C-alpha cells in the first residue's frame, strides 16, 4: 500500500472535469460520487451508478436492480436527542452533535448496495463505486493488481466504451 501511496505515485489521476489530481482511482471516484467536483455539480452517487450501469450491461461490477429508483434521503432533527446523545433511528448509533448524525444519515451507510466484486470467488457487495474500487486496489481478493485497477477505471472514465475485465 505504501508503494502505491502519494509518496511514490504522486497525483497521477486527474478529474476529467476539474483536473484535480488523485493518487488512485478510489480518490477520484469518491470525489465524483460525493458531488465534490465544482465543474460537475450534477454528479452524485446515483448519477455515477447510472453511468456505470449503462457501461456495464452484463453486471460485471454493478448490480442489476429492478426496483432501484435512487437513494433515499434521511435527515434528523432535535427530536433525535435521547437524553445522552443524538441517536440514529435506523441503527441506533449515537452522536454528540446533530450535524454528525446528519452526516451519517447522508452517507451511503443505510443505502442499498449498488456494486459487487467482479471476482466470482469473492462477490462482496458495496454501497458505492469508491468502496468497490478500494477493495480491488487493496488486492485483498486477488482479482487484479493495483495498476490494472487504475488502467481499467481510467478507461471507464475517459471513454464511452463498455466495461470489461
Helical residues, percent: 25-40%
Domain tally: 2
Q: What is the β-strand count?
A: 6
Morphology: globular
- Gyration radius (Cα, Å) is 17 Å
Largest sheet: 2 strands, antiparallel
- Structural class determined from secondary elements: mainly alpha
Could you give the order of the helices and strands? Answer: HEEHHEEHEEHH
Enumerate how many helices there are, as a single number: 6
Strand order of the largest sheet: 1-2
Mean pLDDT: 87
Our estimate of the beta-strand percent is: 5-15%
Low-confidence region ranges: none
Distance between the termini: 22 Å
Short structural summary:
The chain is mainly alpha-helical and 165 residues long.
Task: Describe the protein.
This protein has 165 residues and is mostly helical. The chain has two domains: 2-70 and 111-158, no CATH class; 73-110, no CATH class. 33% of the residues lie in helices and 7% in strands. The chain has helices at residues 6-9, 25-33, 45-55, 98-106, 129-137, 146-158; strands at residues 13-14, 21-22, 86-87, 94-95, 115-116, 125-126. The strands form three sheets. Strands 1-2 form a two-stranded antiparallel ribbon. Strands 3-4 form a two-stranded antiparallel sheet. It has a two-stranded antiparallel sheet with strand order 5-6. Strand 1 (13-14) and strand 2 (21-22) form a beta hairpin. Helix 2 runs antiparallel to helix 5. The radius of gyration is 17 Å and the shape is globular. The model has no long low-confidence stretch (mean pLDDT 87).
Amino acid at each position: 500500500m505504501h508503494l502505491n501511496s502519494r509518496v511514490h505515485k504522486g497525483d497521477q489521476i486527474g478529474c476529467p472535469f476539474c483536473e484535480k489530481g488523485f493518487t488512485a482511482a478510489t480518490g477520484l471516484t469518491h470525489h465524483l460520487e460525493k458531488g465534490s467536483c465544482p465543474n460537475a455539480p450534477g454528479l452524485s452517487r446515483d448519477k455515477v451508478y447510472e453511468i456505470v450501469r449503462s457501461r456495464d450491461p452484463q453486471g460485471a461490477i454493478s448490480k442489476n436492480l429492478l426496483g432501484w429508483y435512487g437513494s433515499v434521503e434521511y435527515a434528523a432533527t432535535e427530536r433525535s436527542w435521547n437524553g445522552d446523545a443524538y441517536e440514529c433511528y435506523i441503527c441506533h448509533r449515537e452522536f454528540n452533535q446533530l450535524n454528525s448524525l446528519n452526516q451519517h444519515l447522508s452517507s451511503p451507510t443505510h443505502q442499498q448496495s449498488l456494486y459487487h466484486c467482479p471476482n466470482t470467488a469473492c462477490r462482496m457487495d458495496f454501497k458505492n463505486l469508491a468502496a468497490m474500487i478500494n477493495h480491488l486496489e487493496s488486492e485483498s481478493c486477488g482479482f487484479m493488481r493495483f495498476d490494472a485497477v487504475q488502467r481499467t477505471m481510467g478507461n471507464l472514465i475517459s471513454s464511452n466504451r463498455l466495461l470489461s475485465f
